[in-house]
Amino acid sequence: MSEGSMFWTVFSIILQVFSLSIGIYYLIVGLTGFLPIKDRNKKVKDKIHKFALIISAHDEEAVIANMVSSLKELDYPDEAYDIFVIADNCEDNTAAEAEKAGALVYVRNVPNLRGKGHALEWMFEKIYNMKKKYDYISIFDADNLVDRNYLKAMNERANQGFKVVQGFLDSKNPYDSWITAAYSFCFWSVNRIFQLSRYKLGLCCELSGTGFIIALDVLKKLGWGATCLTEDMEFTMKLSLNDEKVAFAYDAVVYDEKPLTLKQSWRQRVRWMQGHCDVASRYFFKLIKKGIKERKLSCIDCAVYLVQPIRIIATGIITFFAYAQTFYPDGDLGFMQVSYIFQDIPFGAVIWNVIVILQFLYTPFVIWFERREIKPKMIFYYFTYIIYNFTWVPIAIQGLIGKNKTEWAHTKHTRTISMEELKKINGRFEHKLSTKEQ
Q1: 233-266 burial string, b = 16+ CB within 10 Å, else e?
Q2: Nearest to 120 by CA among 231, 237, 236, 268
Q3: Using one digit for the tens of pLDDT, what is the confidence trace for 331-368?
């Protein structure tokens, strides 16, 4: 065996062990999301907390009014929350539309510091100096719609003593295209097998960019400072390093608009991956060190999440050559012939392909478990969802290469869906946990 072949043999086995180990870990943790584990976090106070609801908006005149309207309809005392809109470097009528809908509008024009993270940091300073004092801030995107129960559910977590809480992210337009369906499948799964499972296990959930609350005292103490392309992920890691866990509120539902086309989706996900890789390069070793030194599984779990781009690339590389060897068994792939951890098992390459494909089978189960109404075209979209997932491989590579880029790209939103329309779209779905989990 040549040196090149020996290197590739060892390297391919390392990639497989790495990918499978994380996959098995995610599977074990994710199963917890389906178990009827009762919430053991007791109420420590009974208070109607005051919330500052903040929407960062850049050229969002088409959707901002519906978002503000949904917040004004929240089932929560009017005097206990205010709605703030940051009209951030806008060139349209976002500010006027938001003010007309009933929001308190703050216009920000700082062209050299674009992006949601910078806009939020600017607004937080203004919140700190207001005469009216708030207990929590809550962050939203302009294209969202918010369930009436959102603040009630968040207030319940606040009364349990949690300082940072992520809500349930749902889809505003799941049936618009195969891309919006793919996003919806992904988010429905993540809420159950990632967020809810970690909440039940007492680990740190992940902030997801919108639909979350942060206590003002924690924000002041730690500072925001999250101004990269994935400010939510950066602040999650910062919280974990400072012994603050993100909780999850299943009944605090926020509906997010998903991109319609592959081109829009690709651009958005590259930005996510660039930010993900940037945060990983700055926080991975800090989290591992703290997790081992202080025996904090929550920190190690966050660190494992940060290596996801590397796992995607590793799985993609091995899967590509597994397919090549499966369908071209007599072919000479040169020194890049893959050696499998199941090398002594017949059809080792086939086994790897089966393992990769099996990870997509939990999606129909999650959809059924969440009691979603499935339209016929969603069955077709499930198969295109597999294609969508494979596009993560080149996107992860592109994100890793461009991790030092900080140019913020705006996703244009035009889908003007009201809460009334959304109820029709959701059909039979009733969003609630089982009585055993409450």
Answers
A1: bbbbbbbbbeebbbbbbbbbbbbbbbbbeeeebb
A2: 231
A3: 555 544 555 555 555 455 566 566 666 677 778 888 88
Q: How far from 42 is each of 143, 153, 158, 159, 243, CA to CA, in Å?
A: 34, 14, 11, 9, 20
Q: What residue type is assigned to position 272 of the chain?
A: W
Taken as a whole, the chain contains a residue count of 438
Whether the CB-CB separation of 59 and 412 falls below 8 Å is answered with: yes
Question: Is the separation of the CB atoms in 309 and 383 below 8 Å?
Answer: no
Domain ranges of the chain: 3-31+305-426, 39-261
Q: How far apart are CA 130 and CA 124, in angstroms?
A: 10
Average pLDDT rounded to a whole number, residues 113-117: 86
Check residue 335 and give its pLDDT.
Answer: 45
**CA–CA distance, 378 with 376 (Å, rounded to integer):** 5
The three-state secondary structure class of 60 is coil
Name beta bridge partners: 54. 84, 139
Its pTM stands at: 0.90
Chain-centroid distance of CA 76 in Å reads 26
CATH code of the domain occupying 39-261: 3.90.550.10
pLDDT beyond 70 at 271: yes
Residue 251 has pLDDT above 80, yes or no: yes
What is the full DSSP assignment across 61-110?
TTTHHHHHHHHHT-SS-GGGEEEEEEEES-SSSHHHHHHHHT-EEEEE--
What is the distance of C-alpha 381 from the center of its chain? Answer: 21
> What angle (nearest 5°) sits at the alpha carbon of residue 201, between those of residues 273 and 365?
70
Residues 411-421: pLDDT tens digits?
A: 666 667 777 77
CA pair distance 181, 106, nearest whole angstrom: 34
Which residues 6+ apart lie within 8 Å of 344 measured at CB? none
pLDDT at 417: 78
